């Protein structure tokens, strides 16, 4: 039984934009739009602070249509977190809006799934169908070579109270972050579950590398029966999956 102090999760919004619904709900309502939010997640237990994802780079965010976009460092400062003091960042995946702001955390070591790192360096990733979702301004290859982005292999207990769960689907190495909180188990899903509706209607993300894995990821979270889910892009920062 985990006896560590539970973590508190703060969802920190970086910006919003409108997007085609079918990009976030597979083959659903193409041509209609919905509002999506961009966030990072801060995990604190009184002893350490861990960040999940980096958010989008400000300029690239504006170029891709984000409004109300803010720099991640002052956004974190508003909740008492100094970006330069962050030493650990868990990356749900390496898309531009989740990993390309890594330079804002100069003293951090980053962790991603080995499958994600392998795909990032592959020829297939260069295909426009995939490459569009990776940063055009920030190349993470140097950080990977320098081992500032370190590999995780499959499901791992990262530290007491935090477990990573490799699900794939959205990208080959997408991972979710399972966190013990005062409320119970919480899951930060990244884009394996970008919206509340994905979970409740069992619709995978519209951006997928493997549709079978994307469906299984939804089912796996349901089996966990978490107390709270923090989706990747929903305007509502979290929800109780039982409601």
Topology at a glance:
Layout: E1 8-20, E2 33-44, E3 49-52, H1 58-63, H2 72-77, E4 88-90, H3 96-99, E5 109-113, H4 114-120, H5 128-131, H6 141-145, E6 149-152, E7 156-159, E8 162-166, E9 175-181, E10 184-188, H7 196-201, H8 211-224, E11 228-230
Parallel strand pairs: 3-4, 4-5, 5-6, 10-11
Antiparallel strand pairs: 1-2, 2-3, 7-8, 8-9, 9-10
What does this protein look like?
By secondary structure, the chain is an alpha/beta fold. It has one domain (8-230): Ribonuclease Z/Hydroxyacylglutathione hydrolase-like (Metallo-beta-lactamase, Chain A, 4-Layer Sandwich), CATH 3.60.15. The protein contains eight helices and eleven strands. The protein has helices at 58-63, 72-77, 96-99, 114-120, 128-131, 141-145, 196-201, 211-224, and strands at 8-20, 33-44, 49-52, 88-90, 109-113, 149-152, 156-159, 162-166, 175-181, 184-188, 228-230. The strands form two sheets. The protein has a six-stranded mixed β-sheet with strand order 1-2-3-4-5-6. A five-stranded mixed β-sheet has the order 7-8-9-10-11, with no helix packed on it. The chain is globular, with a radius of gyration of 16 Å. The two termini are 28 Å apart.
Comma- or semicolon-separated keywords:
alpha/beta, 8 helices, Metallo-beta-lactamase, Chain A
